[in-house]
């Protein structure tokens, strides 16, 4: 039976997932919901570049100058110098040899897998990897083994099981969207044979962590030598689309082999213009990242001081799990009373019954941040310790744990 409680129109998910209410974002850090303006701690537009006037200006200038849709694959007549310009900028920003744009962050991993299919004896994947990595794992068309979330020891055990002749590709998120934790990439490389490849989905880390915002590789002090980094343009860059950061050789191979790349229309050019502008802003305004770090530290520190256990992670994501569905309803009410949108979500590889996830941005005000800390701290007795290393989800219950 599907159980679903409602507070106003806010769904409390238990067994079934229902379509969430449509929301209208306003004033960058607020949302209109049922006629009320509520603080919005959700989405992954970490620097609110999706509403930055310069990004919007580049979008409309791009529309006037280039039109909307090239309406052809880049491998036929749809190529344009602007795609190459953005790829060069992305390769420069992330210090990769090359970059290749694809239609969305989700399909970055699939395009890599389509290209490298047949090259590996085993795919090893973090049990809590994003669904786009699980879909890519299947597309490698070779046995897939999962390992315990963020565990180099578990990875080493799986490597051992594969035997000395194995050729391995390891799939993991760089920063996990459920709680902002980062994969121990350095430890993974130590646990792997020297010819193994890492495919890191850095959708959440790109632009956000690392000294220069280069993501989990920079954060872990790793180069692209053994690593393919995939990113979305829709989070830190507030735009849309995906990119693969890799060697020039792999870029050429993807162009030659990936049906997904060859057989699809590239991003609309105004989006490419907007992303170029977003990258310029990320490069120019270093304070965006430092503000994000300060805001995250303020919320984490405030909650800790008030006795709440919140996983200590580098990312701007705060996860909180209610004790039961009655507690969920009470917390939702408390958040609404504090004029905060109660972002209770159900997402693959997160707790099966849903959880509260608050995403901090560089643009929230101090009073919004304090309000969030106060509202959550007041609900402390309704929350239980959340530890994703051990948390069971629908997916992990179903999969064979190694
Ligand atoms: C880890 C991860 N990978 C890939 C994606 C997909 O990116 P996009 O929304 O650009 O398709 C997401 C988006 O939510 C994500 O969280």
Can you give a write-up of this model?
The chain is of the alpha/beta class and 402 residues long. It has two domains: 12-41 and 286-398, Alpha-Beta Complex (Aspartate Aminotransferase, domain 1), CATH 3.90.1150.10; 51-284, Aspartate Aminotransferase, domain 2. It is 37% helix and 17% strand. The strands form four sheets. Strands 6-12-11-10-9-7-8 form a seven-stranded mixed β-sheet, sandwiched between helices. A four-stranded antiparallel β-sheet has the order 14-15-13-16. Strands 3-4-5 form a three-stranded antiparallel β-sheet, with no helix packed on it. The radius of gyration is 21 Å and the shape is globular. Residues 104-106, 130, 132, 173, 177, 201, 203-204, 232, 234, 242 line the site of pyridoxal-5'-phosphate.
Short description:
The protein is of the alpha/beta class and 402 residues long.
Number of strands: 16
Overall 3D form: globular
What is the fourth-level CATH superfamily of the largest domain?
Type I PLP-dependent aspartate aminotransferase-like (Major domain)
Continuous helix count: 14
- Radius of gyration, in angstroms, nearest whole number: 21 Å
Structural class: alpha/beta
- Terminal-residue CA separation: 31 Å
Low-confidence segments, given as residue ranges, are 1-9
The amount of helix comes to: 25-40%
Known CATH architecture of the largest domain: 3-Layer(aba) Sandwich
Spatial ordering of strands, largest sheet: 6-12-11-10-9-7-8
The helix/strand series, from N terminus to C terminus, equals: EEEEEHHEHEHEHEHEHEEHHHHEHEEHEH
CATH level-3 fold name of the largest domain: Aspartate Aminotransferase, domain 2
User: Number of folding domains?
Assistant: 2
Q: For this structure, what is the CATH class of the largest domain? A: Alpha Beta
